[in-house]
Structure formats: C-alpha cells, structure tokens
From TrEMBL:
Keywords: DNA-binding, Nucleus, Transcription, Transcription regulation. It comes from the Eukaryota. InterPro entries: WRKY_dom (IPR003657), WRKY_dom_sf (IPR036576), WRKY_plant (IPR044810). Gene3D superfamilies: WRKY domain. PANTHER family: WRKY FAMILY TRANSCRIPTION FACTOR, WRKY TRANSCRIPTION FACTOR PROTEIN 1-RELATED. It comes from Juglans regia (English walnut). Residues 19-42 have a biased composition (Polar residues). Residues 1-56 are annotated as: Disordered. Its main location: nucleus. One of its GO terms (cellular component) is nucleus. This is WRKY domain-containing protein. GO terms for molecular function: DNA-binding transcription factor activity; sequence-specific DNA binding.
Amino acid sequence: MEGPPAYFHGNSTDRIKVGTNNQPLETTNKNIFEGGSRSSGYEISKVKSGKKRDKESRMHRYAFQTRSQVDILDDGYRWRKYGQKAVKNSKFPRSYYRCTHKGCNVKKQIQRLSKDEEIVVTTYEGMHIHPLENNAAHSFEQIFRQIQTYAPP
C-alpha cells in the first residue's frame, strides 16, 4: 500500500490528503501571490506592520499522519521546541517547534491521536528558505520510506 505524498518544497498545487474515520483531513497550501500578482479567491485585509509576512508564510501548510513509537522524526532539519499545550479532549499534549536556521520561519506541530496512540500527526507551516542541514543522517524521503504511513481502511 502506497501512502500519500508529502511535500516540503512546493507550489500552489501541492496537496496532502489524509483521513480518519471517514472524515478526510485535507490540507491545501495556496500562494497568496503568484507571478507577482494576487491570485483570485484571496483577499488580504489590512494587518499591523510585520504581520502580513507571517500570514503569507502560514499559507503553506502540510499535515500527515504516521504510525511511530517516537514523536519526533528526523526530517533533515534542526528544530527548537518553543512550546507545549494541553489539547481539549485529548490525553496527549501538542508540541510546537521552530526551524533553527537564521531567517527561516517554518514551524511544526506534533501531537499523538487519542483514538490511536501509535499515530503521530505532524503539521508543517511555511516553506524552508534553505537546503537540508549538511549533517543530517537521512533525507526526509529515506525516513518516509522507513515509517509506516497510516492510511484509513
């Protein structure tokens, strides 16, 4: 069984679609600007200075579910944990991470599912502005092949 594709570098057509209990979790990233002009369907309201760039970087969002004993998988980037919070109706907390590369604003969230404790949901926000770390032992593709991807029946 082949799992869903996962993208870390992509364009406005990249999509990951994963679902549980017949309710699909669909995450689509869309660029606010394509080719220097605004794309149809998106309108940006006025925001405070410095907030507009953050809103644009959050548009690139990727989520996938994996069956794993460990919460954090080595995806080739270096992360710093900046928070953790309890989630309502879940016995597992959600952890928040930022990429440690200077100027890179990518964030990731990690949480285990309460319904199936072996499933880890990882959500990435933003696009990396740098290549994989040189000292990374494995690339994401190698790790993705090693883990069992959860695909609902």
